[in-house]
Specification:
The protein is of the alpha/beta class. The chain folds into two domains: about 10-120 and about 220-330, Periplasmic binding protein-like II (D-Maltodextrin-Binding Protein, domain 2, 3-Layer(aba) Sandwich); about 125-215, D-Maltodextrin-Binding Protein, domain 2. The protein has 16 helices and ten strands. It has helices at about 10-20, 25-35, 55-60, 65, 85-90, 100-110, 150-155, 155-165, 180, 195-200, 225-230, 235-255, 255-265, 270-285, 295, 305-315; strands spanning about 40-45, 70-75, 95, 115-120, 125-130, 145, 170, 185-190, 205-210, 220-225. The strands form two sheets. Strands 2-1-3-10-4 form a five-stranded mixed sheet, sandwiched between helices. The chain has a five-stranded mixed sheet with strand order 7-6-8-5-9.
Length: about 325
């Protein structure tokens, strides 16, 4: 097989490389893998396969998970899928999340814990037509905005508190951009790594309001784990976190082909043009390697960042005071 560095090795040689190069590859770990084979895991994404999931697909396609003794199934999300419900029912081992939803889990005392944050910035943006005066978030106050169901539960409360938006200006988000394209005063929610290329193809070069650029400190692509796994199988969680981080690092900085091919198989609507645009956007905007990751590496989280985001949500009335936010995340798998 071909490893993520591009050299050909046998399974025995792979384990030998890990023993010399990876702190997780202690002799006991190697004996366990050899005796028991690969540990099977399932990861539930929040949306269809795209560049915001590329590190996962890279870790599968480049054999990185296998190098860490794992066999990982990536299950795609979609518009009608309740990821939280699936996760809480223990139908998967890990799931996509973000800071806001993690805080909600902590607020409600639900069994979920964030073990890594692959995305340092939220990909959520609002898109407006150019030349109609909608050139800032402040200018959108009182104007119609299409918002998704998830958006209503997360960033919308932040916008209401910071810019004085009201629920009356919300409109349901349509599955396509037909209404947006013909309605110049309409703004629509989307993702910065996908929507711009589609809108430009349709003849609109949108004004892009990336929420992270205006103080929305939500971590994205948060890896959510079950507390029982953290307590009972920390070695499995550690290997999954380490391998996923390596998947992101190699997809962003080396040959992205293994991840791209996996994305295209999982989502036929993705093509090389979309993948190249998404990768370029994620790199230019530092979505995965800025913030805490700039000092501590991809996947990093910090107490300071969690507290800052929580405090900002309390300040705008999006979260109540008094939540023990540390019950919602752990840094134990990132202290390397």
């Amino acid at each position: 097989m071909t490893s993520s560095q591009g050299f050909v090795v046998s399974r025995r040689a792979t384990l030998g490389v890990l023993a010399g190069a990876c702190t997780m590859a202690a002799p006991a770990f190697l004996r366990q893998v050899q005796a028991q084979g690969l540990t099977k895991l399932a990861y539930q994404t929040g949306w269809l396969a795209g560049t915001d999931k590329a590190g996962l697909y890279q870790a599968v396609g480049a054999g990185i998970y296998k190098d860490y003794g794992l066999e990982v199934e990536i299950r795609s999300g979609g518009p009608q899928l309740n990821v939280n419900q699936i996760f809480l029912a223990r139908k998967v081992d890990f799931a996509d999340s973000d800071s806001f939803r993690v805080l909600n889990f902590a607020r409600e005392g639900l069994p979920a814990i964030a073990v890594a944050a692959m995305g340092q910035k939220s990909l959520t943006a609002l898109f407006s037509h150019p030349g109609v005066g909608n050139d800032s978030l402040a200018a959108l106050k009182g104007k119609p905005i299409q918002v998704s169901a998830i958006g209503r539960q997360t960033y919308w409360n932040w916008l209401k508190g910071k810019y004085g938006y009201s629920d009356e200006q919300m409109r349901p988000k349509n599955p396509n951009y037909g209404q947006f394209l013909v309605t110049k005063d309409l703004t629509v929610e989307g993702f910065v790594n996908t929507e711009p290329i589609e809108m430009r193809r349709a003849g609109v070069d949108p004004v892009i309001h990336v929420l992270a650029d205006h103080g929305y400190e939500n971590y994205s692509s948060v890896t959510l784990a079950h507390p029982h796994m953290v307590a009972e199988k920390p070695d499995v969680v550690q290997r999954f976190v380490d391998a996923t981080i390596k998947g992101w690092r190699t997809w962003l900085n080396e040959d992205p082909t293994p991840g791209n091919e996996g994305i295209k198989r999982a989502n036929p609507n993705m093509n090389d043009e979309f993948l190249a645009f998404g990768r370029k956007t994620l790199k230019e905007r530092g979505v995965f390697d800025s913030g805490d990751a700039a000092k501590m590496g991809i996947g990093a989280m910090s107490d300071a960042r969690w507290k800052s985001f929580y405090d900002s949500m309390v300040a705008v009335g999006a979260m109540p005071a008094g939540i023990d936010i540390k019950r919602g995340y752990t840094l134990q798998f990132l202290k390397k």
